[in-house]
Amino acid sequence: MLNKHSPVIIVGGGAFGLSTALHLSLAGYSDITVFERDEKIPSKYSAAYDINKIVRAEYEDEFYTQLALDVIEAWKNNPIFNPYYHQTGYIVATSGSAPSKARDTLQKSLSSLTNRPAFRNEIKQLSTKDDFRKYAWQITGPLKGFKGYFNRIAGYAHSANSLKSAFVACAQRGIRFVTGEEKGKIVELLYEGKKCVGVKTADGKVYKAETTIVALGAYAASLIPSVGNFAVARCWSVAHVQLTEEETDLLRGIPVVNVRDLGFFFEPDPATRLFKLCPLGAGFVNTNKSNGISLPPPDRLPPPQDYIPAEDERKLRRLLQETFPWMANRPFVDQKLCWFSDTKDSEYCIDFVPGTENSLVVLSGDSGHGFKMMPIFGEWVVDLLQNGKQKLERWQWRKEDQRGVDWGSSVNWRIGETRELKELIVEKEGMVKARL
Ligand SMILES: Cc1cc2nc3c(=O)[nH]c(=O)nc-3n(C[C@H](O)[C@H](O)[C@H](O)COP(=O)(O)OP(=O)(O)OC[C@H]3O[C@@H](n4cnc5c(N)ncnc54)[C@H](O)[C@@H]3O)c2cc1C
Ligand SMILES: *[C@@H]1O[C@H](CO)[C@@H](O)[C@H](O)[C@H]1NC(C)=O
User: Fold this and answer.
1) Which domain holds residue 204?
2) pLDDT (tens place) for every residue of the chain, 436 residues total
3) SUPFAM superfamilies, per this entry (predicted)?
4) CATH code assigned at 379
5) Beta carbons of 295 and 227 less than 8 angstroms apart
């Protein structure tokens, strides 16, 4: 077991890295340094650099339903996080033209809740437009063929503000932060024999540690290439509509609405008046042909900046037609691709890297559902260090090589086929030419 006063390095100040720093400190670890490539936290490279993320307990797997219920309590009770949790409720639905896969997933997520006492009086089935309007009276669209349910014990959290708050709490506890493209970006892990003994930053400085924890999200394989054998960097598109003050006031308090086959949206952010939409599909990967590993492009945004795939835009405009038709033809602003780390079975990876004599830990494979766990995630890393091994099989390092296998569309809750980022760039160039 690790001595609590020996140096620990955490690489990456995103959702998992910050939660880990906080909980290690609470558990008595006293010498913690976090390295983050962006100048400041929240980092613009973090998948959680965003105005909101869904917090919900619907999972097909009881294990995660329980963790999500636990974390919702933490969201409510921990003063570091509770200002940023908004329990607006959650509408899950399918449109009249949804494929059967979308309807099946909805049924499964509903049944994950209905047999739990915590949800006994908290779920309402929705079958008519009037049913939906009971929970979101602002909806004026036709909701043609919409079916679904409302769950009161769910909502969203302001993710960038949560990162910032965790960062401040960590700094107050004496955790050191080294940030910036030169000082804070780690370019290499250093080894002596099999043991990882520290890190090297872009400006060439060396930092030593007894334990190094890599929490790079989608970028994990940039420092530990073998992570790329079982976790791929994948991105989803995000778009926003800029609302006026009145429009923001009008939509205040609406539940998170997730239409399985079209996408989801949140109540507008009061500070920026942005209304965020996300078409959850199989997304895009960025595979390097020579080694089969998918990593985000080196800069924050790939060449098609301020651009989301035409197909995603169509889905989101249909979603608005059905719900808030007055918004359906408004320009999409702040469009971006958001990168996360995806595994075949949507399980996280929280484990020692094999063959490193427990000197190197990887936290990755959030699979697009990791942010909500931020208030408690770090407790699991404390357990790992104390136990000296990952006892839960589901979170262990994966030995199988998944490179070149497309599982993107086999994940139940995603609709569509995975595509390569290159195709998107070609699509964008075609659009630009067509406009000229
Ligand atoms: C569009 C989209 C929607 C999502 N919606 C939800 C949702 O509704 N609910 C939910 O629970 N989750 C959601 N997620 C997933 C959630 O964002 C992630 O699970 C979470 O951010 C993962 O945390 P992480 O710490 O592993 O990675 P990140 O938060 O991405 O952090 C990685 C950090 O590493 C830093 N870094 C990278 N390279 C280096 C380097 N070389 N040196 C130093 N630092 C480096 C980055 O700057 C970044 O700060 C969504 C993700 C996306 C993309
Ligand atoms: C692709 O991988 C090869 C081999 O690891 C590497 O040399 C090359 O720089 C990578 N290309 C890109 C664009 O990252």
Assistant:
1) 1-84+157-230+345-405
2) 679 999 999 999 999 999 999 999 999 999 999 999 999 999 999 999 999 999 999 998 899 999 999 999 999 999 999 999 999 999 999 999 999 988 998 998 898 898 888 898 999 999 999 999 999 999 999 999 999 999 999 999 999 999 999 999 999 999 999 999 999 999 999 999 999 999 999 999 999 999 999 999 999 999 999 999 999 999 999 999 999 999 999 999 999 999 999 999 999 999 999 999 999 878 899 999 999 999 998 765 545 556 788 899 999 999 999 999 999 999 999 998 899 999 999 999 999 999 999 999 999 999 999 999 999 999 999 999 999 999 999 999 999 888 877 665 556 556 667 888 888 888 877 766 665 5
3) FAD/NAD(P)-binding domain
4) 3.50.50.60
5) no
Residue 424 has φ and ψ, to the nearest 5°, of -65, -40
Number of domains within the chain: 1
Question: How far is the C-alpha of 417 from the C-alpha of 281, rounded, in Å?
Answer: 8
Quick check: 154 and 90 in contact, CB under 8 A? yes
In whole angstroms, what is the distance from residue 404 CA to residue 207 CA? 35
Distance 140 CA to ligand 1 centre (A): 34
Nearest-atom number in ligand 1 for the CA of 373 is 11
CA of 286 to the centre of ligand 2 (A): 12
In this structure, is residue 391 part of a structural domain? yes
Residue 277 lies in a domain: no
* Residue identifier of the C-alpha nearest atom 12 of ligand 2: 288
Picking from 102, 104, 97, the residue whose alpha carbon sits closest to that of residue 322 is 97
- The CA-atom distances, in angstroms, between 275 and each of 10, 31, 145, 266, 316 are 34, 41, 24, 7, 12
Return the ligand number nearest the Cα of 421. 2
User: Hey, what's the torsion of the CAs at 294, 298, 301, 304, to 10 degrees?
Assistant: -70
Report CA(38)–ligand 1 centroid distance (Å).
13
Integer Rg of the chain from CA: 21
Which pTM value belongs to this model? Answer: 0.96
Within 8 A by CB and 6+ apart from 347, the residues are 365, 367, 394, 395
Task: Judge whether 429 lies within some domain.
Answer: no
Residue 432 burial (C-beta neighbours within 10 Å; 0-12, 13-18, 19+): exposed
**Is residue 387 in some structural domain?**
yes
Instruction: Report strand pairing: 176-179 vs 32-36.
Output: parallel
